[in-house]
Amino acid sequence: MGIYEQLVVISFLYPPSLSRFYCDYCDTYLTHDSPSVRKTHCSGRKHKENVEDYCQKWMEEQAQSLIDKTTAAFQQGKIPPTPFSAPPPAGAMIPPPPSLRKFITFLS
Ligand SMILES: [Zn+2]
Protein backbone atom coordinates (compact mmCIF):
# COMPACT_ATOMS: atom_id res chain seq x y z
CA MET A 1 0.00 0.00 0.00
CA GLY A 2 1.45 3.34 -1.03
CA ILE A 3 1.58 6.45 1.10
CA TYR A 4 -1.29 7.96 -0.84
CA GLU A 5 -3.60 5.01 -0.18
CA GLN A 6 -2.60 5.08 3.47
CA LEU A 7 -3.51 8.75 3.67
CA VAL A 8 -6.87 8.06 2.03
CA VAL A 9 -7.60 5.31 4.57
CA ILE A 10 -6.48 7.52 7.48
CA SER A 11 -8.61 10.43 6.32
CA PHE A 12 -11.53 8.05 5.86
CA LEU A 13 -11.14 6.60 9.36
CA TYR A 14 -10.45 9.93 11.01
CA PRO A 15 -12.20 12.66 9.02
CA PRO A 16 -10.75 15.85 10.50
CA SER A 17 -13.83 17.90 9.77
CA LEU A 18 -16.00 15.63 11.90
CA SER A 19 -13.82 15.18 14.94
CA ARG A 20 -11.55 18.18 14.92
CA PHE A 21 -11.65 21.71 13.64
CA TYR A 22 -8.84 22.62 11.31
CA CYS A 23 -7.82 26.24 11.22
CA ASP A 24 -6.43 27.15 7.82
CA TYR A 25 -4.89 30.37 9.01
CA CYS A 26 -3.03 28.88 11.94
CA ASP A 27 -2.32 25.61 10.09
CA THR A 28 -3.40 23.69 13.15
CA TYR A 29 -6.12 21.40 14.48
CA LEU A 30 -8.24 22.18 17.48
CA THR A 31 -8.31 18.95 19.45
CA HIS A 32 -11.87 19.36 20.68
CA ASP A 33 -14.30 20.95 18.29
CA SER A 34 -17.20 22.80 19.78
CA PRO A 35 -18.68 26.22 19.05
CA SER A 36 -17.13 27.68 22.19
CA VAL A 37 -13.69 26.25 21.39
CA ARG A 38 -13.88 27.69 17.89
CA LYS A 39 -15.01 31.03 19.24
CA THR A 40 -12.19 31.12 21.75
CA HIS A 41 -9.69 30.20 19.07
CA CYS A 42 -11.01 32.74 16.56
CA SER A 43 -10.96 35.54 19.09
CA GLY A 44 -7.42 34.67 20.16
CA ARG A 45 -4.57 37.05 19.47
CA LYS A 46 -2.47 34.45 17.64
CA HIS A 47 -5.31 33.54 15.31
CA LYS A 48 -5.99 37.20 14.49
CA GLU A 49 -2.31 37.73 13.78
CA ASN A 50 -2.31 34.72 11.48
CA VAL A 51 -5.42 35.98 9.65
CA GLU A 52 -3.81 39.40 9.19
CA ASP A 53 -0.62 37.72 7.99
CA TYR A 54 -2.61 35.61 5.56
CA CYS A 55 -4.51 38.62 4.15
CA GLN A 56 -1.28 40.58 3.84
CA LYS A 57 0.42 37.77 1.91
CA TRP A 58 -2.65 37.27 -0.26
CA MET A 59 -2.79 40.95 -1.20
CA GLU A 60 0.95 41.00 -1.88
CA GLU A 61 0.53 37.96 -4.13
CA GLN A 62 -2.35 39.64 -5.97
CA ALA A 63 -0.34 42.83 -6.43
CA GLN A 64 2.72 40.86 -7.53
CA SER A 65 0.73 38.82 -10.06
CA LEU A 66 -0.79 42.02 -11.43
CA ILE A 67 2.68 43.52 -11.79
CA ASP A 68 3.92 40.30 -13.42
CA LYS A 69 1.02 40.26 -15.88
CA THR A 70 1.54 43.93 -16.75
CA THR A 71 5.26 43.41 -17.20
CA ALA A 72 4.69 40.32 -19.36
CA ALA A 73 2.12 42.14 -21.51
CA PHE A 74 4.52 45.07 -21.87
CA GLN A 75 7.39 42.80 -22.88
CA GLN A 76 5.17 41.17 -25.50
CA GLY A 77 4.30 44.61 -26.84
CA LYS A 78 0.63 44.21 -26.00
CA ILE A 79 0.36 47.45 -24.11
CA PRO A 80 2.11 50.83 -24.40
CA PRO A 81 4.96 51.61 -21.97
CA THR A 82 2.71 53.75 -19.75
CA PRO A 83 -0.07 51.30 -18.75
CA PHE A 84 -1.39 53.43 -15.91
CA SER A 85 -1.78 56.71 -17.79
CA ALA A 86 -5.16 57.68 -19.18
CA PRO A 87 -5.75 56.62 -22.78
CA PRO A 88 -5.98 59.44 -25.37
CA PRO A 89 -9.50 60.57 -26.33
CA ALA A 90 -11.07 58.26 -28.87
CA GLY A 91 -10.14 59.17 -32.44
CA ALA A 92 -7.56 61.77 -31.41
CA MET A 93 -4.60 59.68 -32.57
CA ILE A 94 -6.26 58.14 -35.61
CA PRO A 95 -6.57 60.33 -38.73
CA PRO A 96 -9.98 60.09 -40.38
CA PRO A 97 -10.14 57.93 -43.52
CA PRO A 98 -9.80 59.83 -46.87
CA SER A 99 -13.48 59.51 -47.70
CA LEU A 100 -14.48 61.07 -44.40
CA ARG A 101 -11.84 63.79 -44.85
CA LYS A 102 -13.40 64.69 -48.20
CA PHE A 103 -16.80 64.81 -46.56
CA ILE A 104 -15.46 67.09 -43.78
CA THR A 105 -13.87 69.38 -46.44
CA PHE A 106 -17.20 69.45 -48.31
CA LEU A 107 -19.04 70.50 -45.13
CA SER A 108 -16.61 73.27 -44.12
ZN1 LIG B 1 -6.66 30.04 13.86
Give a short summary of the structure.
By secondary structure, the chain is mainly alpha-helical.
Verbal overview:
The structure is a single chain. This protein is mostly helical and 108 residues long. It has a domain at 18-72: Classic Zinc Finger (Double Stranded RNA Binding Domain), CATH 3.30.160.60. 59% of the residues lie in helices and 6% in strands. Strands 1-2 form a two-stranded antiparallel ribbon. Strand 1 (21-23) and strand 2 (28-30) form a beta hairpin. The radius of gyration is 29 Å and the shape is elongated. Bound molecules: zinc ion (ZN). It comes from Myotis davidii (David's myotis).
- Average pLDDT reading: 77
- Give unreliable regions as ranges: none
CATH topology-level name of the domain at 18-72:
Double Stranded RNA Binding Domain
Give the overall shape: elongated
The topology string of helices and strands comes to HHEEHHH
Structural class: mainly alpha
Number of strands: 2
The tally of helices reads 5
Range of strand content: 5-15%
Separation, N- and C-terminal Cα atoms: 87 Å
Main sheet: strand order: 1-2
Q: Tell me the Rg in angstroms.
A: 29 Å
Q: Strand count, sense and closure of the main sheet?
A: 2 strands, antiparallel
Question: What would CATH call the class of the domain at 18-72?
Answer: Alpha Beta
Instruction: Name the CATH architecture of the domain at 18-72.
Output: 2-Layer Sandwich
Ligand roster: zinc ion
The helix fraction, in percent, is 55-70%
Q: CATH superfamily of the domain at 18-72, please?
A: Classic Zinc Finger
GO biological process, one term: mRNA 5'-splice site recognition
Keywords: Metal-binding, Nucleus, Ribonucleoprotein, RNA-binding, Zinc, Zinc-finger
Main location: nucleus
Protein name: U1 small nuclear ribonucleoprotein C
